[in-house]
Amino acid sequence: MFERTIDRVTRIPPLGPGFDGERHKAALVVAPGDLPATDPFFLMADDNITQGGAFGEAHPHAGLETVTFMLNGTMEDTGGRLEEGDVEWMTSGSGIVHAENTMVSTGMRLFQLWLILPEAQRNMPPRVQVLRRAAMPVHAEPGVVATVYSGKSGDATAPTLNAVPVTLIDIRLAPGAVFAAHVPASYNAFVVALEGDLEAGATARKLAKGTVGWTGPMGDGDSALHLRAGADGARLLLYAGQPQNIAVVAKGPFIAGSTEELAGYYAAYRHGKFPHAGSMRPIAPYA
């Protein structure tokens, strides 16, 4: 059993202008450009809305998965409605169009993660999974409630389908509570402190609200990241995944293995070959 340490700490930058006018503010929780350090996580955005209404436009993706975690408020489009605590896990694969006629509530906040896909699955048929908070398995122990959206924690295992092996857990800790989060030692992982403060890892690295702590791959077998909440308790999201160790080329909403493959995505989209997410029946675990 490996005991993990927090290797580096970053902070979510101040919110800046988003893509949808003054009411949309955004920041990068995980910035693109250093995939060897963040693999398989390509980027993660923190999107915030100050006034509800129409949001963005329909757009394509290919060659990646998006994992949209609703932190506050609601978002609804032709594919359905996401409420606080819900997650949409969309595998774009060979290509998909989504976010058609999107409406969001005032005060909405979400994290959207981009995951690279393994070479063998990069052009798999697209699929959409809707993970309802109320349907997700929960691991509980004194002072700890861990809602498992992907992967497992203790005897709680999520039914989520993964192209890249990924663990996603929403962990809530009572004041002073301790918890050992177990993930495969080969995974790259990061935790985002959403509320309160905590100490993490073998060296009890302090993480305050708005900070991101990274812990890298350690080898084969199991590993544990030890967490201890501060006097006010804590809430954090744990993301962990198997690095793919592949080279990718990214442009706009696409991630490919080569410039030729990238050009193929653009051509397929221009010729209307991408299905629309709103016309697909989402996979809803336990539904």
TrEMBL record:
Q: How is the cofactor bound?
A: Binds 1 Fe cation per subunit.
Supply the SUPFAM superfamilies for this chain.
RmlC-like cupins (SSF51182)
- Pirin C-terminal domain residues: 169-274
CC cofactor? Fe cation
Pfam families per the UniProt record, alphabetical: Pirin (PF02678), Pirin_C (PF05726)
The entry assigns this protein to a family as follows: Belongs to the pirin family.
Protein name as it appears in the record? Nuclease PIN
Q: Which organism is it from?
A: Massilia aurea
Taxonomic lineage: Bacteria, Pseudomonadati, Pseudomonadota, Betaproteobacteria, Burkholderiales
